Amino acid sequence: MFYGNINNEFFDKQCNLMPKPLALCLKYLKENDMAKAEAGVFDLKLGNSDCILQVLDLQTNERHNLRPEIHRKYIDVQFLASGGPEEAAFWSDDCSLEVDENLLSTKRDILFYKNSDTIKEGRIYLTPGTYACYFPWDVHVPAIQVGKEEKPIRKIVIKVPLEDCYR
């Protein structure tokens, strides 16, 4: 997993270090006003990669109400376009958690784990312009509320095929 902000002075240097499909994805997010994009799920061609663009209007929620998730075929690039703030939890998948719902064989490419008191998670803090790239070994829990109140967020998720990122 890595994260950053499209407005960071090192953004271009960060993109130069990434696999080309991820760099194209982040540049797309910087060059397009995703806060004004139509909500929904769309096919998105970035270079030679067939990606999936999800424009989601959500509410943040308390951590215990959210399920950990993971993907296998895609790198999940999550971007906070507006609203928030939000936190996201993350940790390395050791396959020790009980599966709650397995949709890996569907177009969604997602597996939800059940929450557990044994999870040792890290947290990142997201404000508009912040992105996080979750690889297949990164369990993550997005849209965690900050403070005592839920907040509306405009979340952009671009699913980048993992196989396109091999050099």
Automatic annotation (TrEMBL):
GO annotation, cellular component aspect: cytosol
SUPFAM superfamilies reported in the protein's UniProt record: Clavaminate synthase-like
Pfam families found in the cross-reference section: DUF386 (PF04074)
InterPro entries for the chain: NanQ/TabA/YiaL, NanQ/TabA/YiaL_sf
NCBIfam families in UniProt: YhcH/YjgK/YiaL family protein
Protein name according to UniProt: DUF386 domain-containing protein
UniProt source species: Lachnoanaerobaculum orale
